[in-house]
C-alpha cells in the first residue's frame, strides 16, 4: 500500500496553512544564517551599486524633464491648484514646491529599485543557488532547461509590469492610506513574481516548476509581502535584494526536495 502523501497538498486547510507558515519561517531563518556568510555579504554590493548608479543616472537624465512635465500637468489639476491657493492665502507655503519633487522621486526611485532587484534575480541568484545548493541541498539535482532565457524574460516582464502599475496607480496615492497600501502591494508583486521563478528555475524541470508555482503560490506571496514590509525601512534596501533571494532559494529548493521525495514514495 502506498503511504499517504507527506506534502500539504492533501492535508486539511488548517494543517496546510500551518505547514506553509512553518516553511516560510524556516526559509527566513535559514536565509539569515546564509546571509552572514562572506560570499553572500559580498554579493550584496552588486544590486546595491546597480540601484545606486541607476538612481543617479535617472535623476541626472530625467529629473528636470519630469519635474517640468509634472508642473505643467499639475497646473491643470483643479484640486491641487485650489489647495495650493488656499495654503498661500493663509500665509503658509506653496504645496507645488514640495509636491512635484516628491512625486518625481516617487516615480524615479522605485524604478532604480526594481532594476536592482532584476539584477539580483538574473545575475546574483545563480551565486545564491550555488551557495545554498552546495551546502544544504546537495541532493537536489539540477533538471531545469533554458534557465537563463526564462529568468531574463521573467525579469523583463515583471519589471515592465511593476513600472507601469506603479506609475498608473500614483493618482490613488492622494487617497489615504493608499500610498502605503499600493507601495506594499507592488513590491510584494515584484518580489514574488521575480524571485520565485529564479529560486527554482535551475533545479526544477518545467513540470516540477509548474507544480511548485501552483502549490506554493500562497507561500511565495507571503514571503513577498514580508519583504515588501521590510522594504519600507530604508536601511533594508542595502541587503534586501540578496536576502530575499536567499529566502526564496531556501523555500523553493526545500519545496522541490519535498516534491521529489513525495514522488519517490509514490513510485
From TrEMBL:
Coiled-coil ranges from the UniProt annotation: none
UniProt entry tagged with the keyword Membrane: yes
Lineage: Bacteria, Pseudomonadati, Pseudomonadota, Betaproteobacteria, Burkholderiales
Main location: membrane
Transmembrane stretches, start-end: 40-63, 98-129, 150-168, 174-191, 219-240
InterPro entries for this protein: CysZ/EI24
Any Pfam family hit: EI24
UniProt-recorded name of the protein: EI24 domain-containing protein
Membrane topology per record: Multi-pass membrane protein
Signal peptide interval: none
Domain of life: Bacteria
Keywords: Membrane, Transmembrane, Transmembrane helix
Compartment list: Membrane
